[in-house]
Amino acid sequence: MCAGLAVALALAGCGSSAPKHVTKKRTGVVPPPGSTSATSATSATSATGSTTAAAALSADQAAEQLARSAASAAMTYGTNNNGNYSGMTAAALHSLEAAIQVGPGAGNAYIDPDTGVTILDSGAGFTVTATSTTGDTFSAGESATGTPTQSCTGTASSACQDGSW
After folding, report:
1. Cα–Cα distance for residue pair 24/7, rounded to 1 Å
2. Distance (Å, rounded) from C-alpha 139 to C-alpha 102?
3. Per-residue pLDDT reduced to its tens digit, 17-39
């Protein structure tokens, strides 16, 4: 009977010699708030190359997303204008989607107000181009026949590989 009771108590978590919630004591020196530890500073220094590459990839991915958002806003523009993209500008896209940044600033990807929107075939198609903070560009659009298009320009270490993304 005692063995059965011991098994039941163990399964229920009763009779355990260790408390259920154990708080481990921190050892070592804890840096004051707002400062970095020597370990994290060393890691950041030794990983500068990979951190820079990761930051560039992240910046390019933000530009890819901006190009997609701008292309979606452009399609809305076309729908609102009987399937015609004539007169579409970066500012018009921003008015349809406030998250579309027109012009550089704040360290974000952007649509250039002068060159970021191209109207094709008398308004039958379009290309929007987002510029990454790395300088790489990502374009999305629709041909005059309605075929989706994508292209990019970038360095070998960017998210743009062989002109596509």
Report:
1. 28
2. 15
3. 444 444 444 444 444 455 444 44
Q: What is the pLDDT of residues 107-126, one digit of tens each?
A: 999 999 999 999 999 999 99
Are 67 and 130 in contact by the 8 Å Cβ rule? The answer is yes
Nearest in space to 74 (alpha carbons), one of 54, 91, 51: 91
Residue 49: helix, strand or coil by DSSP? Answer: helix
- Residue 6 has a CB neighbour count (10 Å cut-off) of 12
Q: In one letter, which amino acid is 33?
A: P
Sign, CA dihedral 18-23-24-27, equals: negative
Which tokens in the block code for residue 100? 């579309």
| Confidence at residue 26, expressed as pLDDT on a 0 to 100 scale | 40
Q: What is the pTM of this model?
A: 0.70
